[in-house]
């Protein structure tokens, strides 16, 4: 019964890819002193009785390297969008001109850059924990199969496969963090 055991490494790999994708999304929301529409992705606005992403309430543009604009489609939502941006903790002071909200991106000082690198490190640690949890899931499946008669050699093979996968994704997390921290510290 256990001789035909095969661990679904594709599923593990896909789930680890998801952890990396989530990390990259979180990194995109970190402000690096350059304008980017993706920095607004995590912000939700109370609109029409539910929480709605900003990009569903208006058009986001980056007309200049240090400016993001939002052309809000519904005039009644302008104040709510502006308030959500102020309350988001991005450290940006929105300026309203009719239905257009302008977000000038201020230059980052050294202290703020260091804070952002710590935030990035925290995001990376969450991704590492997610990858390690997936490793544990894989190891638990192997342990269960050993209890059902999987040979010791086969168990060792699958354990090394899971460990190799884990090591590869942890390395990817570390490289992604390193690149983001370098981007943040770049003046």
From TrEMBL:
Record localization: Cytoplasm
The species this protein was found in: Rubellimicrobium roseum
Record's GO cellular component terms: cytosol
Function field: Responsible for the release of ribosomes from messenger RNA at the termination of protein biosynthesis. May increase the efficiency of translation by recycling ribosomes from one round of translation to another.
Source organism superkingdom: Bacteria
GO biological process: cytoplasmic translational termination
Lineage: Bacteria, Pseudomonadati, Pseudomonadota, Alphaproteobacteria, Rhodobacterales
Family: Belongs to the RRF family.
Keyword terms: Cytoplasm, Protein biosynthesis
Residues annotated as domain Ribosome recycling factor: 23-185
One GO MF term attached to the UniProt entry: ribosomal large subunit binding
InterPro entries: Ribosome_recyc_fac, Ribosome_recyc_fac_dom, RRF_sf
Protein name: Ribosome-recycling factor
Pfam families: RRF
